[in-house]
Amino acid sequence: MSDNERAAKRQKRSMPELAIDTTSTPAPDMIVDVCNEGDTILVVKGIAGVPKPVGIRVSSSALSITSPVFRRLLATPGGNAPPTPPTGVEEPRLVYLENDDGDALFLLLNILHLRNDALPARLRPDLLFRFVAICARYECTVAAGRAASQWLDYIYTKTLKASRLFSHTGPSATPATPASAFPPTTPFSAFPPTNDSQTLFKLIEASLTLNDALFFARFTSHFILTQPTITSISEIAPSQTQTQQRLAAVLQARQKQTLQDLRIDLDLLIDPLSEALSEDTKHYPDCAPGDEAQPDGTTTAEEGDNQQQQYCPIDRDAATEFLSALRDANLWPATRWPALTPPQPPSSSFPSTSTSTAAAVGSPSLSSLPTAIVSTLKSFRVPDHDASDACYWCMHVEDRFATALNLVRAMHKDRLWGLCLDCYKAGGTGMGMGVYKGECRYEHFKPGVGKVWQVDVDVDVNGVRDVVKGGDGGDGAGEGEGQGSGGAMAISSTEG
């Protein structure tokens, strides 16, 4: 038996269950036309809340071209193509798909027939997840992926707006409007926000399935910046498939690397201040560092020897003032970070009905720590410092500190906080990230020749235990103008 025959048998075993056109099964009472001249009617349990079988008229040729699963299902037992109705017979054949979601399948069929005018402008997240599942089942994510971009954009925009809304409102003790223990049952909006770890993880997984690099990067960035560090895969991926295990492990490694990157960013701010306090920059007024102080012209040499010379205090005072400002803002040292008060949704207005969701949200002081640090740095104001008495040899700490602060802000603006889909796929099936050698669809900074670290994950009932180990990486040509670790989601160490 050839390899092609074995692959065909394996594909047949994984095909969705359906019953083809039998005389004992009655025709549906309601038929919706996707293709007016279609030769096949797919019968589902219901569409748009209709609690009875509904037929969908489609073209078997269009489905066979776009989906290999439909091509096998609609083919005759002895052939590879859909059957051609006899001349003069206009009655389409019935194909029953009782195990499929009617609403999701109806969306997919409109896309495969190029009926973009029949697609809704917006989708709720739950229907999007069902749509992605049906696309994966019929192996037509390539044909349907582009159509889902507008739905992903709507959900992402609402999620982002919800985060910004709650960032300006603290926890509320007042009930929701209308007065109820639960949020209003209105069409999908910012209430309740799709800001819990499980929903965001599903959106990331949906973007991965649809091979959408843009929204994979956007949703992973939002996850990294707003969600607590993953401690157990079961919190966000109850089914724990191999794909979910790897995705959760890479997200966990990226979360830890993000905090490390922020510590490095703070070091850039501290560097000019520490230099101003070092022994190398100490100097007497109007004297170069290392030179002995010279008495001024109003004193004799003997009087100058008796006077105690003082170092120039301008740089020291400026560095001390800026360090105090960073500490008052809870930015430095890193032990002050838990004192930051990140924004939290009004949990009292929207009580959680699941303990797993509550655990995924995390503690108020650490759940959105990266967001709190980035936003605090963005709004940090350099204190006014009077340096009018600075001498020629002063290093002007205020200017160097302001330059470093602007550099860090620019790095945060251009940095990819999340994951690059192409680099993620370059990691293969291992529990780690790779570096895509070609041009990534989402532009970001990539390291050059270096070592790419892999993350091995042991999964058990207690959660995830990650072990970082080194592995040889390939060449990755740097691209883009982003700063920071960017797309190297695994820890990378450049070797000369």
How would you describe this structure to a colleague?
This is BTB domain-containing protein. It comes from Septoria linicola. With 496 residues, the chain is an alpha/beta fold. It contains 17 helices and eight strands. A five-stranded mixed beta sheet has the order 1-5-3-4-2. It has a three-stranded antiparallel beta sheet with strand order 7-6-8. A hairpin with a 2-residue loop joins strand 6 and strand 7. Helix 7 runs parallel beside helix 9. The C terminus is likely disordered.
Task: Please name the defining characteristics of this protein.
disordered C terminus, 3-stranded antiparallel beta sheet, 17 helices, BTB domain-containing protein, 41% helix, rod-shaped
Q: What's the structural blueprint in terms of helices and strands?
A:
Layout: H1 3-13, E1 19-20, E2 30-33, E3 40-44, E4 54-58, H2 60-66, H3 68-74, E5 93-96, H4 102-112, H5 125-137, H6 141-144, H7 149-167, H8 197-209, H9 213-226, H10 233-236, H11 242-276, H12 301-306, H13 314-328, H14 355-361, H15 369-379, H16 397-414, H17 421-426, E6 450-460, E7 463-472, E8 492-494
